[in-house]
Amino acid sequence: xxxxxxxxxxxxxxxxxxxxxxxxxxxxxxxxxxxxxxxxxxxxxxxxxxxxxxxxxxxxxxxxxxxxxxxxxxxxxxxxxxxxxxxxxxxxxxxxxxxxxxxxxxxxxxxxxxxxxxxxxxxxxxxxxxxxxxxxxxxxxxxxxxxxxxxxxxxxxxxxxxxxxxxxxxxxxxxxxxxxxxxxxxxxxxxxxxxxxxxxxxxxxxxxxxxxxxxxxxxxxxxxxxxxxxxxxxxxxxxxxxxxxxxxxxxxxxxxxxxxxxxxxxxxxxxxxxxxxxxxxxxxxxxxxxxxxxxxxxxxxxxxxxxxxxxxxxxxxxxxxxxxxxxxxxxxxxxxxxxxxxxxxxxxxxxxxxxxxxxxxxxxxxxxxxxxxxxxxxxxxxx
Length: 383
Known about the structure:
Elements: E1 3-7, H1 18-32, E2 38-43, E3 57-60, H2 66-80, E4 85-88, E5 104-107, H3 112-115, H4 122-138, E6 141-144, H5 147-156, H6 162-165, E7 166-168, E8 191-194, H7 203-215, E9 221-222, E10 225-226, E11 231-234, H8 242-250, E12 254-258, H9 262-271, E13 274-277, H10 286-293, E14 298-301, H11 306-310, E15 315-317, H12 322-333, H13 336-350, H14 355-372
Parallel strand pairs: 1-2, 1-4, 2-3, 4-5, 5-6, 6-7, 8-11, 8-13, 11-12, 13-14, 14-15
Antiparallel strand pairs: 9-10
Helix pairs in contact: 1-14, 7-12, 10-13
């Protein structure tokens, strides 16, 4: 029997976003398949609502503010825990760990703050720049969601011994939620974009590409309706969204839904004709995986892990070229057989990615640390 702790202090946020989804679903799957292992959750003032029903011990912090959690409470509680390793599935381990703290396993989601600094809030650049290098050096093992992120991490942090610590843990598809009704006056067959309204998601170029298709009156046919279908955008306002959000709301043919619940998102994936995801950089790309799981063909950017995740089951475009994005959308809109072919291929590929498999790989890393104290060897890659 081994004893592990998981830092879920950042998981109290109510909205479903990428890193939070990873932390929540990975934690759920680890606890569900724990066997004789024991897990303790390190929480802010209360258990996160998404993890409230888990049958395991929880240690509650008197603080909710993230700075106090990272610099005051976590270092103190680490040293008091009687456990074999601590998993940090959201943020890196605390910037100053005590010498008697258990071994840390750190999940690095992407290197956007290094590779695309202009598209990341300055607070995140400052914090991650200050703590990630130390966290990587201190960690007993490092988890990444893709081979692309593994390469980025090694390129940005040439730390002795880091390569042997890294295991690739691809993310999974959450259990399918029964679809709710489509939003009012929304007809099936639309182009769907999912993601926070922020610079890295590249909405400004997507809007320009969509506008170009409409302006050129491309002779498209979606079912029985001629013309370019509606572009539907589902995502909460994020960092530096101001002008982009204004343009989204003002653009003809575009419908902005804001943040949607899981039932509505499921209905959107089922009813859309195409996913438009020309992101400038992703460490993995959960919206693409979710779309593929629903058999929804996708147009994706060629940066980061998206081509790796797509595995040939999507149209890959240059996300910095409006003409390339428009051409990718046009190919799908004008070719029903291509939509059907890549939709089926994507669904088959998505079946390889489950949270149970992610938890199994993570558990292997945790148990190796608990059993031998040695650094965990590199894990599998997306294939």
